[in-house]
Design goal:
There is one protein chain. The protein is α/β, with parallel strands linked by helices. The protein has two domains: 142 residues, HAD superfamily/HAD-like (Rossmann fold); 69 residues, DNA polymerase, domain 1 (Orthogonal Bundle). It is 51% helix and 9% strand. It has a five-stranded parallel sheet with strand order 3-2-1-4-5, with helices on both faces. Strand 2, helix 6 and strand 3 form a beta-alpha-beta unit. The protein is globular, with a radius of gyration of 18 Å.
């Protein structure tokens, strides 16, 4: 039986509490042209998707003119950078989690639907870059989540199989990508649920540990 040797993390809403930042940055750009996304729409349909895909959906659903997609995308990235520089700071719980997982011998990487510039900036600002081997952004694959390519790319780079991999995800599109990749999944509802003991519990379950051991570790 294969055992977990690699843990792949989504970024927004998992390692960094950035879900709200993306929502606010995109709406800030959209409102310049009289459009917006409601919070319900964001959480139920748009969360976790690349900005390009969100804009395509808005054209279909709300009549957003396609010729302004490029301008909106650039504005959104500028506003996202503002949010990251203003609000992104190290969180001890996440640093402890990654540090201890590394010490336990697990290989770690981050796979995000964000563009590479935002991904690198968030990981750096949150103090997590010393703990991960590499980052995979939406610019490093042909198809973003919910397509499984981003996770398959990371597994291929590490030389591990899906049976040896645990993916930590929150958004439905990311969970679908993880499921389609064949990896084990640790699904969380958001940033505050992600800690060392939850991830280790998921690893032990994937490795077939008895429930009593898993429960004792999570206590």
């Amino acid at each position: 039986m294969s055992r977990i040797s690699a843990v792949l993390f989504d970024l927004d809403g998992v390692l960094v509490d950035a879900t709200e930042w993306h929502y606010e940055a995109l709406n800030r750009a959209l409102r310049l042209f009289g459009f917006d996304i409601t919070r319900y729409e964001h959480l139920s349909a748009y969360n976790g998707l690349p900005t390009k895909k969100k804009l395509e959906m808005l054209s279909v659903e709300k009549g957003l003119p396609a010729p302004i997609h490029g301008m909106l995308n650039r504005l959104k990235q500028v506003y996202t950078r503002d949010e990251i520089l203003t609000r992104c700071r190290p969180v001890f719980e996440k640093e402890y989690m990654l540090s201890r997982l590394r010490r336990d011998g697990y290989r770690l990487a981050v796979c995000s639907n964000s563009i590479r510039e935002s991904l690198e900036l968030m990981v750096h600002q949150s103090g997590l870059d010393p703990y991960v081997e590499f980052l995979v952004s939406n610019e490093d694959v042909r198809a973003p989540k919910p397509d499984p390519e981003i996770y398959r790319t990371a597994m291929a780079r590490m030389g591990v199989s899906p049976a040896e991999t645990l993916v930590v995800e929150d958004a439905p599109h990311g969970v679908e990508a993880a499921r389609r990749s064949g990896a084990h999944i640790c699904q969380v509802s958001g940033f505050t649920e992600v800690d060392y003991f939850r991830v280790r519990t998921a690893i032990d379950r994937a490795n077939g540990a008895p429930a009593t051991i898993v429960e004792r570790m999570a206590a």
